[in-house]
Specification:
The N and C termini lie far apart (97 Å). A hairpin with a 4-residue loop joins β5 (50-53) and β6. It is built from 33 helices and 31 strands. It has 848 residues and is α/β, with parallel strands linked by helices. The strands form 9 sheets. A 6-stranded parallel sheet has the order 10-9-19-20-8-21. It has 5 domains: 1-178, PH-domain like (Roll); 205-286 and 580-646, P-loop containing nucleotide triphosphate hydrolases (Rossmann fold, 3-Layer(aba) Sandwich), CATH 3.40.50.300; 290-363 and 482-556, no CATH class; 376-479, no CATH class; 651-838, Rossmann fold, CATH 3.40.50. Helix content is 47%, strand content 16%.
Length: 848
């Protein structure tokens, strides 16, 4: 039955088709004289209607989708109808405001405002605020004072981003006050303000960056306890993932201890390693969890793989040839940008051919190996005895060396680093080099010497071996290919089989950790830009297939399978994710496979809140799959999040902090942090010393002297000797073995030292070279192509490794360096005026 009817005015009878306008239940109905009608749902109106009185009639402007205007209505009836419509809308709007209040309290006042909740509030709270800002006068005429006050407060912050920031800040301040006693007592020392905020912030995704010694473990424990104590989550709803078993045990012990300290009676949350979690899920899904001996015993893996390689090479000539061809990764010297790169290449690469010669380039290696594999006796870099001078008094060729000499045939073979246009690599003078070639040719001709030539472009075009074959056959050089068994014996006896087995095993590990498909293997190797990428990819795919086949044969899994298979179990719905909160420690070292596992858990769970705790300055495990980009590009790769940076350290002093922080932040890819220290000193506490004793190199004696000095002044001090390499520590430890030492002396590799601390640190091994620091013993190009992409900053991971080393010490860090083969890190510390004490006159490095 129609209520509140309005009809046209007397004037409207001439100018409108409307018969009447009425409200029928929840509809506004306009009836026309031709018996048609137009209907509007009252709930669809977006604002109050507006009544306008004209001279002989009235009109009502509706807030429907088309902003319909109903004209020529009876004034009195239109007034009643408009008031009724606005009464309906006011009631509806009051309900929306009350709902907005409830949701605002639920999502932003009673808990930390999460990114996923912003969308909910956008549809209610923030949209109301926006509408009110555009219709203040109209809304103030119809809404209650309480609602107007609520909307007025909201409209003071028109930008959603600003409103979100204010709401979060308000919540944080409230919790800081309410939970002050808890935060003061949950750890051995009261939590810092940054630690407290890391505990309070409970976004969908949270990143906590914790510099060395800033208490990230305290945050992990306190956050878990806080969630349980406030009834936000039960212990079994919290999953804490530690980097390794020792870290997991430490977290459990800390949790129990701190719970007791805070007078809280509760069980620990679920604290596991990634592998233990994967194993749990597989067992829950009734999947095979038998761990292969290849995973649990590195020697067994190496033994199996070496045996497999041997079997393949002895049974398959094509495989043997491919293996030999791929022994060394191709290097194109024309790709070097300058002579420094060329010198660096020569310095760090050592090519030893099958004939036992140490050759200077990859192409010379190919030539020497080809000659040896075809039973051609040859000498490398023999001195040529000049019979006639090229010109009177010409001494430019007094000492002439050819690349190779075939004594049985009295033939000289030279390889020249030129392209088809006679261009030379960077750093080699084209004119002088080509003049030298011309002089050698003239010399050979005058002496009637048989000389053969190969060129860099032969290799570039893939025709080096073809040219060698044609040249030698032209002079009747007998080519007798070595039998497969002799080649295999050569590889075995030279140690190259073992060496290559280790290389390919590292590549296999990278493939497994990164979960690379065959297509991805091909793509990554191709993108690395070196020749033979298809053959290398084929070799790696064959190796990976053999490995997975062996696991299947054993009906067993490896550690990577624990992650890979568990991810599939969750994806297929074979495991119901029970957690509301997931906390991950050492996030900077997380691999792509582990991140995929985490994402699957989060996506399959319900409203899971994820907190990553780590330090991009301490990311030093790329070789085992650590993908730093997941931390430095967290927003892009992981998602929108709340960031908390822990910047106050209680471990070391401001001197150590200033040196280490400035050093690591030279890399623009690292997060900028401003570390403050509890302990302040006025003099440098990072000391640089040389490794000399009585004019000779004696690292062990120098370390002994420093230890004696420390113990003389601080008898109970803990001292850590740190090095990038274990063999250096072993030599120092052996030297000190017969000396009187305390149990507080430790020997740590820099990788193994992460998470540890001592009163004093002594870092050794600073020098140039393959086994120097920073290390120039770079991963082979093949392995590099399979590892997670790293930033382009020179020595970026080695730089972070030194940061880890320097920050292990509480009081003082000593750096012992070789002044005669000076490390680039030491050059930087001295030449760039870092606030260190240079306690040696041998480091006058300003000239570089």
């Amino acid at each position: 039955m129609a209520q509140y009817i309005a009809t046209p005015s007397w004037l409207g009878r001439f100018f409108t088709r409307i018969k009447r306008v009425s409200i029928e239940q929840s509809m506004l109905v306009i009836d026309f004289r031709d018996n048609t009608k137009l209907q509007f749902r009252l709930s669809e109106f977006s604002n109050f209607s507006v009544l306008r009185n004209r001279l002989f009639s009235a009109e009502i402007n509706l807030s429907d989708r088309n902003n319909t205007c109903i004209s020529f209505l009876n004034k009195g009836q239109a007034d009643v109808l408009s008031k009724t419509l606005n009464h309906y809308f006011a009631n509806s709007l009051e309900q929306k405001i009350n709902k907005a209040k409830t949701q605002l309290k639920q999502y932003a006042l009673d808990e930390f405002l999460r990114d996923s909740s912003i969308e909910i509030l956008n549809k209610t709270v923030f949209s109301l605020s926006k509408n009110y800002a555009h219709n203040q006068i109209l809304w103030q005429q119809h809404l209650s004072p309480v609602s107007i006050k609520f909307l007025s407060i909201l409209s003071r912050t028109p930008k959603v981003t600003d409103a979100v920031a204010q709401l979060r800040h308000k919540y944080e301040q409230k919790q800081l006050t309410l939970r002050d006693n808890f935060y003061n007592n949950v750890e051995s020392n009261p939590l810092t303000i940054e630690q407290r905020l890391a505990v309070i912030r409970d976004n969908d995704k949270n990143l906590v960056l914790a510099a060395a010694g800033t208490g990230k473990t305290s945050v992990m424990v306190a956050k878990s306890l806080d969630l349980i104590d406030r009834d936000i989550a039960t212990p079994d709803q919290i999953l804490v993932l530690a980097y390794n078993k020792a870290a997991a045990e430490e977290l459990k012990e800390r949790f129990i201890k701190r719970a007791g300290q805070a007078n809280l009676s509760m069980t620990p949350p679920v604290i596991l390693t990634f592998h233990a979690l994967g194993l749990t899920l597989l067992r829950n899904a009734k999947k095979s969890t038998e761990l292969s001996v290849l995973a649990s015993d590195a020697l067994q893996l190496k033994s199996w793989f070496t045996a497999w390689l041997s079997e393949q090479m002895q049974a398959n000539s094509a495989f043997l040839k491919s293996f030999v061809d791929l022994l060394y990764e191709p290097v194109d010297i024309f790709s070097f940008k300058n002579s420094a790169e060329d010198e660096h290449y020569v310095r760090i690469n050592e090519y030893k051919s099958f004939a036992g010669y140490k050759v200077k380039s990859y192409q010379e290696l190919l030539i020497s190996n080809w000659l040896h594999l075809n039973s051609v006796e040859h000498e490398y870099k023999p001195a040529y005895k000049i019979k006639q001078r090229v010109g009177p008094g010409d001494k430019r060729l007094n000492k002439q060396y050819s690349s190779f000499y075939l004594p049985k045939y009295n033939i000289y073979l030279d390889h020249y680093d030129i392209d088809r246009q006679s261009n030379t690599p960077s750093g080699i003078n084209k004119e002088h080099y080509n003049e030298h070639i011309a002089l050698k040719r003239e010399l050979y001709k005058k002496d009637n010497t048989i000389f053969l030539e190969t060129f860099h472009f032969n290799w570039l075009e893939g025709k080096l071996e073809e040219r060698l074959g044609k040249l030698l056959k032209q002079y009747s050089v007998a080519l007798t290919p070595l039998a497969d068994d002799k080649i295999f014996a050569l590889l075995t006896n030279s140690g190259q089989l073992q060496q290559e087995a280790e290389k390919y095993l590292k590549c296999l590990q990278a493939i497994r950790v990164e979960q690379l498909t065959n297509t991805q293997i091909k793509q990554r190797i191709k993108q690395s830009g070196f020749k033979n990428h298809q053959r290398y990819a084929a070799m790696l795919i064959t190796i990976h297939d053999a490995y997975t086949h062996e696991l299947s044969r054993q009906n067993a899994i490896d550690f990577d399978d624990m992650i890979i298979h568990a991810t599939q179990v969750v994806k297929k719905g074979e495991f119901s994710v029970p957690w509301s909160h997931i906390l991950v420690d050492e996030f900077q070292d997380i691999s792509g496979a582990r991140m995929a596992f985490l994402n699957t858990l989060i996506n399959k769970g319900t409203g899971i809140r994820f907190t990553a705790v780590g330090d991009d300055w301490q990311a030093i495990y790329r070789f085992s799959g650590g993908n730093l980009a997941l931390t430095t590009r967290f927003e892009e790769l992981v998602g929108s999040h709340s960031l908390t940076v822990l910047q106050k350290t209680f471990r070391y002093n401001n001197s150590i902090s200033d040196v280490a922080g400035r050093f690591v932040m030279q890399n623009p890819e690292q997060y900028k942090k401003h570390i403050t220290t509890h302990v302040q000193v006025s003099t440098p506490q990072v000391i640089l010393l040389d490794d000399q004793y009585k004019g000779a190199k004696s690292l062990e004696v120098k370390v002994q002297q420093i230890i004696s000095t420390i113990q003389k002044n601080d008898a109970t001090a803990s001292i850590a000797v740190l090095s990038r390499y274990r063999f250096m520590l072993n030599k120092v430890e052996q030297h000190l073995k017969n000396k009187k030492q305390t149990n507080t002396l430790h020997f740590w590799t820099l990788h193994g030292a992460k998470g540890l601390e001592a009163d004093y640190g002594i870092i050794i091994g600073f020098k140039q070279g393959k086994l120097g620091f920073p290390s120039n013993n770079q991963n082979n190009v093949l392995l590099e192509s399979l590892l997670p992409v790293q930033d382009s900053f020179t020595h970026s991971e080695e730089r972070r490794l030194l940061y880890v080393g320097i920050t292990r010490a509480k009081h003082k860090t000593y750096l012992i360096a070789d002044p005669h083969a000076c490390s680039v890190f030491i050059k930087e510390l001295v030449n760039d005026d870092y606030p260190i004490e240079v306690a040696s006159t041998l480091f006058n490095l300003s000239s570089g």
